[in-house]
Amino acid sequence: MVEKNPITPEGAQKLREELHRRKTVDRPQISQMIAEARAHGDLSENAEYHAARERGGFNEGRIKELEDKLARAEIIDPTKLEGDKVAFGATVKLLNTATDEEVTYRILGADEADINAGSISITAPIAKSLLGKEVGDEVKIRTPAGERVYEILEVEFK
User: Fold this and answer.
1) From 18, 78, 103, 133, which residue has the greatest number of CB atoms within 10 Å?
2) pLDDT along the chain (158 residues), means of 10
3) Looking at beta carbons, which pairs linking 119-124 to residues 24 or more positions away fall under 8 Å?
4) What CATH number is given to the structural domain containing 94?
5) Quick one: 71 and 88 in the same domain?
6) Do 108 and 148 have their domain in common?
7) Are 75 and 12 in contact (CB under 8 A)?
């Protein structure tokens, strides 16, 4: 059975756009670069030719990766979810009980996670610790700096 990967509609659209660009823009450009480099003659010492072939190989690999991700995507719209338990798509406000510092994370799929934007992968240890918990629960999370205890202040789907 194929393992499905949760992703938001926006995340799936970004993957589709990248796939389209790689097939319709990058692939023809790379083919043109290879043809131009091939016209320069001796391929054994033609750095432009080898660089273009390498770029083409990378592009084809990424195309296959994107097609696989989209084939395994389980599109979930967080705006249609509700409840008070932490799940995919939830925005969770946490309180570090030792420092009284608040932090907010949105739990997304691996392809959408961006810690700088406040989103974490559903497969990340912190997200795994939070899944299924609800407001008021305390969660122990192991970090490189040691174990920390967080209280869940808010869970919302937006």
Assistant:
1) 78
2) 87 97 98 90 82 96 97 93 91 95 95 93 93 96 88 94
3) 122/6, 122/88
4) 3.10.50.30
5) no
6) yes
7) yes
Quick one: CA torsion of 155, 2, 67, 157, rounded to 10 degrees?
Answer: -10
The token pair that represents 154 in the structure block: 């808010």
- 67 with 121, same domain: the answer is no
Contact between 72 and 3 under an 8 Å Cβ cutoff? The reply is yes
Beta-ladder partners of 157: 90
* Amino acid in the structure at residue 31: S
Asked if 10 and 39 sit in the same domain, the reply is yes
Pairing of strands 146-157, 90-96: antiparallel
- Amino acid sitting at position 137: D
Q: Is the pTM of this model over 0.70?
A: yes
Examine the domain organization and report whether 148 and 104 are in the same domain: yes
- Domain hosting 58: range is 5-75
Number of domains in the chain: 2
